[in-house]
Design goal:
The protein has three helices and four strands; from the N terminus they run H-E-E-E-H-E-H. The chain is α+β, with helices and mostly antiparallel strands.
Length: 109
């Protein structure tokens, strides 16, 4: 059985690969001006993709920091797409990417 961190990485890479296959420019592991690092950003549509943090340790601190990051990004005009914690099928990954690709095409129009 794979550790869940490995499954999350495969899921994240699947989403990024699907977006790139669709011609969407995705920048990964980008720092913000507040010192946080976001998992991925689609600059053309101001969409940020975040993985849910591992909250098994220090749950209140982790969720507070995660919520703070989301609030700051939304205040700066970004849409935040959070990758679900549970396992995603290839169809669910495509559906997740469909929402992002739609926003990207609307932003460039």
């Amino acid at each position: 059985m794979k550790p869940s961190g490995s499954a999350d990485l495969v899921k994240f890479e699947g989403i990024i690969s699907e977006l790139k296959r669709r011609g969407v420019v995705v920048l990964t592991h980008r720092p913000t001006r507040w010192g946080y690092v976001v998992d991925a950003v689609v600059p053309s549509a101001k969409i940020v993709i975040l993985k849910v943090p591992d909250i098994t340790k220090q749950i209140k601190v982790a969720m507070s920091q995660f919520r703070d990051l989301i609030n700051r990004l939304e205040d700066d005009g970004y849409q935040v797409a959070v990758i679900p914690r549970n396992r995603m099928s290839p169809e669910e990954i495509r559906a997740f990417c469909d929402r992002i690709a739609t926003e990207t095409s609307l932003a460039s129009a």
